């Protein structure tokens, strides 16, 4: 053994982080001990506090340390439009675009029968109750454009078929700034299918 | 703000890790909260224990949670040869090659006057005392083949000029498995200068 046991333990523990293998974990451990002790203490404390206090928002299921998350508490947001996403990272990305000002519902995953993840696990009933209770006018189902995301979107749309709410999906096509030659075929098919007349 | 405050704090805290930017820190925080809570608790606890208990070995300056590190305590190692390296990662790499069985001295850096790092900061006096006390026969100065590493090596060699210890540097040349066409010019110069007759 080349390392003192606690250092080996620290390297092992750092490997629980996504994308961190043995080499990066070593580098992280060395830096924390050599130059980053203050940051290391802050990380240890903040991580414990976050794990202890962060649960789910009762309304939208997003991460929250209070019963209602800051977005659900924000009275200035529109109440008749709701966006369904798979993860908190999606909420973050949409908020950073600073365009959408409605409500959210975070599934924290997608339907995946093979992993035992059914409608109950992702909170579909809760979503349906909210749509009815809040009189949602439009539900944007922004699950990922993957097989699982599409399946989840269709399942939710089916369950709401008789509700009268307008159900929409995000447009698929060429990303802004994207180069045509580097875009995959199925995105191109969507881009052609969804083509629009050029105004002017 | 799209995230609950503690989650923002956790993302900030994770950015103290080397190579972790905003996006990776977000991904790490989400994974710790979504699926990795057990690993997260272990990381928080192990990190606190490591920061509290890991200091320096009194003999070789490597990380250790005991006054003497496991390598310095190992009575089966040769005592008349010592290898000077810049960091604990170097000790790790050398130990993994399973060839060298002598002592170590870890500078925890290199001379860098511009950063206020002089001989005292990297423990040169301590190294010299050890060489004299232990009657070291050969001192392999395995600092990095960089300007700072070479400067540090020459400084230590100068200080030991009258000591009688044999001072060596690691051979420089083509890495095993390296492709000639992809090796930088200065390595090639070293490889040519240090060429050896082919036995046979
Ligand atoms: Zn909420
Ligand atoms: Zn030691």
TrEMBL record, chains A, B:
Disulfide bond as UniProt keyword: no
Assigned keywords, A-Z: DNA damage, DNA recombination, DNA repair, Metal-binding, Zinc, Zinc-finger
Zinc finger (C4-type) boundaries: 57-72
InterPro entries in UniProt: DNA_Rcmb_RecR, Rcmb_RecR, Rcmb_RecR_Znf, TOPRIM_dom, TOPRIM_RecR
Gene Ontology terms for molecular function: DNA binding; zinc ion binding
PROSITE patterns per record: TOPRIM (PS50880)
Pfam family membership, one: RecR_ZnF
One of the GO BP terms on file: DNA recombination
Record domain Toprim: where: 80-175
Family from the record: Belongs to the RecR family.
HAMAP family for the chain: RecR
NCBIfam families for the chain: recR (TIGR00615)
Function summary: May play a role in DNA repair. It seems to be involved in an RecBC-independent recombinational process of DNA repair. It may act with RecF and RecO.
Protein name per UniProt: Recombination protein RecR
Gene this chain is encoded by: recR
């Amino acid at each position: 053994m080349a390392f003192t046991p606690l250092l080996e333990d620290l390297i092992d523990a750092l490997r629980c982080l996504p994308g961190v293998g043995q080499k990066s974990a070593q580098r992280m451990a060395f830096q924390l001990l050599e130059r980053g002790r203050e940051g290391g203490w802050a990380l240890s404390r903040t991580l414990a506090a976050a794990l202890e206090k962060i649960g789910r928002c009762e309304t939208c299921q997003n991460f929250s340390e209070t019963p209602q998350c800051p977005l659900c508490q924000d009275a200035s947001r529109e109440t008749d439009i709701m966006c369904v996403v798979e993860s908190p990272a999606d909420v973050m990305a949409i908020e950073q675009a600073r365009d959408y000002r409605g409500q959210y519902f975070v599934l924290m995953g997608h339907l995946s029968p093979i992993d035992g993840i059914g409608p109950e696990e992702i909170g579909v009933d809760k979503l349906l109750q909210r749509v009815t209770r809040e009189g949602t006018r439009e539900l944007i189902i922004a699950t990922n454009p993957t097989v699982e995301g599409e399946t989840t979107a269709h399942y939710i749309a089916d369950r709401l078929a008789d509700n009268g709410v307008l159900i929409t999906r995000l447009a698929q096509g060429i990303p802004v700034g994207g180069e045509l030659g580097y875009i995959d075929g199925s995105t191109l098919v969507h881009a052609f299918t969804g083509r629009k007349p050029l105004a002017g």
